[in-house]
Write a structure and sequence with these properties.
This protein is of the alpha+beta class. It is globular, with a radius of gyration of 29 Å. Residues 167-182 have low confidence and may be disordered.
Length: 612
C-alpha cells in the first residue's frame, strides 16, 4: 500500500484547517444536503466531505459510511490533496497504490473513488468532496462537472461558516498568517510532525529543527540551531545542493528534491532524501526554506546489493558473450543454461532473442517468439505493469522491476532488469534479465513472521504489540487498551491436558479477531494473557461495550478432545483520551494490567475500566 506524502506546505495547510474551527464539530444540514445531492447525481452509495488532519481524515458530512474518521495512511483523500483538479480511481483493486489498502481489502470494500480537492487561497488544500462505490465504474465529464460545482459550494459554505463564527477574521488570519502562524501553534504542528523537517534561513543555517529531525541526525536541538545545512552533508555530495539552493534563493524555483549522505552523530553517513520548499511572505518574497528529510539508507543498501549482484551477472554474461559473439549457437547454449530469463527486445517491443527459460516459464519455444510482440506473450495486467519500464529502457535508462508475477497461476516472484542496447550512441532496443527471487522473498517473510507472530495463535506477539502500542501513543489519538486474562485456564490444562489448553487459546484468538475491526490489534502477550488495542475509541461507553462483547465471546464453551470446557475472562481497560499519558507501552500495559486485577478481585469474568 502506498502512503501519500505530505504536501510541501503541510504546516501552513494544517494551520489553516485548524483556523476554520470545523474539525470535530456536529453534523450540519448545509453540508449533508451537498453529500446527498452528490450521491444522487453520480448514482453512488457513498459521499463524503473529508478533511485531512495531521494523522487522520475526519468526515464533516458522510452518506453511506458509519465511521466518522479513519487514519490518514489509508485515506484516498490524502492522495487527492496533490491533485490539480480531481482524482479519479476507476478500480482501486487494480491500482498499485490501493490494491492492498484495508479499505479495499476489507470494509467498506471501496472500488471506485472520485475526489475534488477543497482548496483555499490557491494552495491550501484541506480535504475533498468525494464519492465512492463498491463496484468499479467510469464517470462522464458531465458527472465530474457536477462534482466540481458541488465542491466549490462546499468551499463557499466553509468560508461562510468560519466568518459567522469568528466575525470575519478567521479566513483573513488563515490566508494571511497560515505560512507564518503564531509561535505556539507553529511550534506544536511543526515539532510534533511525524516527519523530519527543519526551518532553514536563506544563508543555509538551520533556524528550527523539529524533534524527528534531531533524532534522525543524532544531535541535540541546541547543537543544530545555526549550524549550516551544508555542514551536515557529506563533502562528496555538497555539489548536488549548491546550484539548486542558489536558484531557489534567487526565486527561480520553489522546490528541489535530491539524495545526499548526511553526517550524523553515529559513525557512518546516512543516505537521505532532502525535499526543500521555499516559504514566501504576503508580498511573495522568499523568507525561509523548509527542509524535509527521509531516511533512505535501507533502500540504498538493497539497491547496492542488487547492483553488485547484477553487475556480477552482467559481467559474466558480457564475458561469455564477447568470447562467443561469432557463434550464435554457442551463445544460445550458454544463455539456455543460466537460470535467468534472458531476452533481447527491439524498439517496436518485439522479441529478437530468448533463452530456454522462456520455455519453462511460458511453455513457448524460444525460436517461436522471435519477431512476436511482447504484448502477445505477457498477460494484459503484467504488460501494463511493465510497460513504463520498457519505455524508460528504450529512452536509454536502466530500469529495475521487483515483485513481478508473470502469470496469476505461477507463484514464482521475479526481479527484472531492463538494460538499454546502445550501439553507436543509439538505442536499438534493450536486454531483459529476470531472476527468480521466490525463495529469498519467502525467507524474508518467514523471518519477519517468526520475529513478530505468536506461533500457536498466529497473533502478533509481545514484540509486535509493543511497537504497535508505542506507535498509537506517538499519534496522540484516542484509543482503548484491553488487558485480558483467561479465568479457569489452568484448570483446563490440569484436567484435559495442554493440547486442550492450546485449543482454548486458539479459539479465544479467533473469537476476538471476529468481533474486532480490521484496524484494531489483537495480540498474545504470554500464556493465557491477551491484549487488544481498539483504535478511535473516544468515550467510556464505547470502551465498556467492547469489553462486554469480549467477555461474552470468551465465556462461551469450547469443544476440546474429551469434552466441552468453559473459561471466563477478566479484562482491564485503559482508555487513552488525552493522548499525553502514559509515555510508553509498558506504562500503558501496567495501567490496563492493574485494572484487570481489579476485575479479578470483583469476581472474575468481568471488566474494570480506568481512563487518563
Amino acid at each position: 500500500m502506498q502512503i501519500a506524502p505530505s504536501p510541501l506546505n503541510e504546516a501552513a495547510r494544517l494551520c489553516f484547517l485548524e483556523s476554520l474551527n470545523i474539525l470535530d464539530t456536529p453534523a450540519e444540514e448545509t453540508f449533508d444536503r451537498i453529500t446527498r445531492l452528490a450521491s444522487v447525481l453520480l448514482d453512488v452509495p457513498m459521499a463524503l466531505v473529508s478533511l485531512v488532519d495531521m494523522n487522520r481524515q475526519w468526515f464533516k458530512s458522510r452518506q453511506g459510511i458509519d465511521v466518522a474518521e479513519t487514519t490518514r495512511d489509508v485515506a484516498f483523500c490524502a492522495h487527492a490533496l496533490h491533485a490539480e483538479d480531481i482524482l479519479v480511481i476507476p478500480d482501486a483493486s487494480a491500482d498499485p497504490r490501493f490494491v492492498d489498502n484495508p479499505l479495499v481489502t476489507g470494509g467498506p470494500r471501496i472500488r471506485f473513488y472520485a475526489g475534488v480537492p477543497l482548496r483555499f487561497a490557491g494552495e491550501l488544500t484541506v480535504g475533498t468532496l468525494c464519492v465512492l462505490d463498491t463496484r468499479p465504474r467510469r464517470v462522464s465529464e458531465t458527472e465530474l462537472a457536477h462534482l466540481r460545482d458541488l465542491a466549490r459550494i462546499v468551499e463557499r459554505e466553509m468560508l461562510h461558516r468560519s466568518l459567522a463564527i469568528d466575525s470575519g477574521s478567521a479566513v483573513q488570519q488563515a490566508e494571511q498568517g497560515a505560512l507564518v502562524s503564531s509561535e505556539a501553534r507553529f511550534r506544536r504542528v511543526f515539532d510534533n510532525s511525524p516527519t523530519s523537517k527543519a526551518l532553514v534561513g536563506l544563508d543555509g543555517r538551520i533556524l528550527e529543527p523539529n524533534r524527528e529531525f534531531c533524532q534522525l541526525l543524532g544531535q541535540t536541538k541546541e547543537w543544530l540551531v545555526l549550524t549550516p545545512l551544508s555542514a551536515l552533508i557529506a563533502p562528496q555530495d555538497l555539489a548536488k545542493l549548491d546550484d539548486p539552493w542558489q536558484r531557489m534563493v534567487a526565486g527561480e524555483q520553489d522546490s528541489l528534491l535530491l539524495e545526499v549522505r548526511l553526517i550524523t552523530g553515529g559513525n557512518a553517513p546516512l543516505w537521505s532524501e532532502l525535499s526543500v520548499s521555499a516559504l514566501r511572505n504576503d508580498c511573495g518574497v522568499i523568507e525561509h526554506m523548509v527542509v524535509f528529510v527521509r531516511d533512505i539508507s535501507e533502500r540504498k543498501r538493497r539497491q547496492q546489493q542488487l547492483q553488485r549482484y547484477q553487475a556480477t551477472l552482467e559481467q559474466q554474461v558480457a564475458q561469455r558473450t564477447e568470447e562467443l559473439a561469432r557463434s550464435q549457437e554457442t551463445l544460445q547454449a550458454i544463455a539456455d543454461n543460466i537460470p535467468v530469463l534472458i531476452a533481447q527486445i527491439g524498439t517496436d517491443l518485439e522479441y529478437r532473442f530468448n533463452n530456454a527459460v522462456y520455455r519453462q516459464v511460458f511453455g513457448v519455444e524460444p525460436t517461436e517468439l522471435r519477431g512476436r510482440k511482447v504484448q502477445d506473450l505477457l498477460p494484459a495486467q503484467v504488460y501494463q505493469q511493465l510497460l513504463p519500464c520498457f519505455r524508460k529502457a528504450l529512452a536509454g535508462e536502466r530500469v529495475e522491476a521487483d515483485n513481478v508475477r508473470y502469470s496469476p497461476d505461477d507463484t514464482r516472484i521475479w526481479h527484472a532488469s531492463y538494460v538499454p542496447d546502445i550501439r553507436n550512441g543509439k538505442v536499438e532496443g534493450f536486454f531483459v534479465m529476470s531472476l527468480d527471487v521466490t525463495e529469498r522473498k519467502h525467507k524474508e517473510k518467514t523471518l519477519l513472521d517468526q520475529a513478530t507472530l505468536d506461533p500457536l495463535t498466529g497473533l502478533p506477539n509481545r514484540v509486535a504489540l509493543h511497537k504497535e502500542l508505542d506507535f498509537a501513543l506517538q499519534q496522540r489519538a484516542a484509543f482503548a487498551l484491553f488487558f485480558i486474562d483467561l479465568d479457569g485456564f489452568k484448570q483446563v490444562n490440569d484436567q484435559y491436558g495442554h493440547d486442550a489448553g492450546d485449543a482454548v487459546l486458539q479459539a479465544a484468538a479467533g473469537r476476538m479477531l471476529a468481533i474486532m475491526r480490521t484496524d484494531d490489534t489483537v495480540a498474545r502477550l504470554a500464556g493465557d494473557e491477551f491484549v487488544v488495542i481498539a483504535q478511535a475509541v473516544a468515550n467510556q461507553a464505547s470502551a465498556r461495550d467492547i469489553a462486554r462483547k469480549l467477555c461474552d465471546v470468551l465465556s462461551a464453551p469450547v469443544q476440546v478432545e474429551g469434552g466441552e470446557v468453559a473459561v471466563g475472562a477478566s479484562i482491564g481497560v485503559y482508555l487513552n483520551l488525552s493522548g499525553h499519558d502514559p509515555q510508553s507501552a509498558e506504562e500503558a500495559l501496567a495501567l490496563a494490567d492493574k485494572a484487570m486485577y481489579e476485575a479479578k478481585r470483583g469476581g472474575r469474568n468481568r471488566f474494570s475500566l480506568v481512563a487518563d
